[in-house]
């Protein structure tokens, strides 16, 4: 198990590394029912699209046990799925994992014990596959990074955001594993500070050189020639290649274009949503104003000021050099390339 594995199933309950406490404290929380998993996702104790999907899958296992005590098992299970699904709207991996789980268990809708067994196996498969998929993304992405030089990333698309290894940070890990000398420039990622709290922590733990910058320093860093590429994760990739990712990603893509830098998105196929034609159709989560008006619980803005707090933005496909998936690098035209990933 990696140092920053986000979740573990012990056969009975789900154990999550509480990401709201990092980097000051390494605290694990135990979820024994689906309500605890739903709360942990909502409060971002577990976050990052693939990690949310895997956590929700285990949440459904816990919910199935609760539902098996009811006469209307299947309806109760569907209610559990809806509770988990409604926690965070942008990351499509959440719906992807729940739908995959429900589809597997549907034949056992009248046999709760069989359904629980199938759901438990499927959640384990989702978690295991996630790590394998990230390693494959790493293998396809590593050759795209420079032999030596800076790479800028945003938010946290690492082991913490997946089950382990990471997508964007998986690409960086794989490049380092193949002997490349990479220095990561991590944007702090206001307002939730995933870059400062999580990416800096996880790279430091692995001994990968990392320099933390505030989000508004990205232009300076690019202008000074300190980075040669940008690689970020994704919460949802629309059919035309538009990408929803952590707020601030769009600005970075434009800056990268202006500076002639390649801008890569690393994402598993479970993040690709062909049912959403373009970025306009991606629901963007809005979070509490206090995330903006306070820093570590301390008010930093006048009371009562209007606040906007979208958690994600959409980067139009035209700014994206390539989307690195576990099946290979997809380059424009994205509509054809992304659809081909799902051809049988
Ligand atoms: O709000 P978060 O922390 O869940 O947002 C995470 C991101 O935006 C990640 O870049 C994305 O989920 C990809 S994680 C492999």
Describe the protein in words.
This protein is an alpha/beta fold and 344 residues long. The chain has two domains: 7-135, Four Helix Bundle (Hemerythrin (Met), subunit A), CATH 1.20.120; 140-341, Translation initiation factor eif-2b, domain 2 (Rossmann fold, 3-Layer(aba) Sandwich). It has helices at 34-42, 49-67, 73-85, 92-105, 112-141, 168-177, 194-206, 218-223, 249-258, 290-293, 334-341, and strands at 7-9, 14-17, 28-31, 148-153, 181-187, 210-213, 229-232, 236-238, 243-246, 263-266, 272-273, 294-295, 298-299, 312-315, 322-325, 328-330. The strands form four sheets. It has a seven-stranded mixed beta sheet with strand order 6-5-4-7-10-15-16. Strands 11-8-9-14 form a four-stranded mixed beta sheet, covered by helices on one side. It has a three-stranded antiparallel beta sheet with strand order 1-2-3. It binds 5-S-methyl-1-O-phosphono-5-thio-D-ribulose (MRU). Residues 47-50, 91, 155, 157, 161-162, 167, 194, 233-235, 245-246, 311 line the site of 5-S-methyl-1-O-phosphono-5-thio-D-ribulose (MRU).
Tell me briefly what this model is.
The chain is built from 11 helices and 16 strands. It is of the alpha/beta class and 344 residues long.
Could you name the key traits of this structure?
344 residues; alpha/beta; Four Helix Bundle (Hemerythrin (Met), subunit A); Rossmann fold; 2 domains; seven-stranded mixed beta sheet; four-stranded mixed beta sheet; 11 helices; 16 strands; binds 5-S-methyl-1-O-phosphono-5-thio-D-ribulose
